[in-house]
Amino acid sequence: MRIVFSRLVALSEIVLCAHFVFDGLSQPQPKPGKGAKAVPSLLMWHFQEMLAAFGFSWHVAPGLADAELAWLNA
């Protein structure tokens, strides 16, 4: 968590509007083409608390966060 904290400090010093998207409950298991495991909800909860403390926005996608980010960029 120390690395995550230092990265958030660096992001907070830059003039930008960062928005974080997390995988939702409707994501396929496992992710297509990857052997990745789902992020433990406790770790995600602590990361979301840190994002809120730094003033960053975030939300949970309905499915895969990758698809949600592609939709947001369109």
Explain what this protein looks like in three dimensions.
The chain has 74 residues and is mainly alpha-helical. The chain has one domain. Helices cover 46% and strands 11% of the residues. The chain is built from three helices and two strands. Helix 1 packs parallel to helix 2. The mean pLDDT is 84.
If strands are numbered along the chain, what order do they take across the biggest sheet?
1-2
Which percent range describes the beta-strand content?
A: 5-15%
State the major sheet: 2 strands, parallel
Counting helices, strands and paired strands, the structural category is mainly alpha
Count of spatially separate domains = 1
Q: Which stretches of 5+ consecutive residues score pLDDT under 50?
A: none
- The strand count comes to 2
Please trace the helix and strand order, writing H or E for each element.
HEHEH
Rough outline = globular
Q: What gyration radius follows from the Cα positions, in whole Å?
A: 13 Å
Q: Name the average pLDDT.
A: 84
**Helicity, as a percent range:** 40-55%
Structural topology:
Layout: H1 2-12, E1 19-22, H2 41-54, E2 57-60, H3 65-73
Parallel strand pairs: 1-2
Summary tags:
mainly alpha
At a glance:
The protein has one domain. The protein contains three helices and two strands, in the order αβαβα.
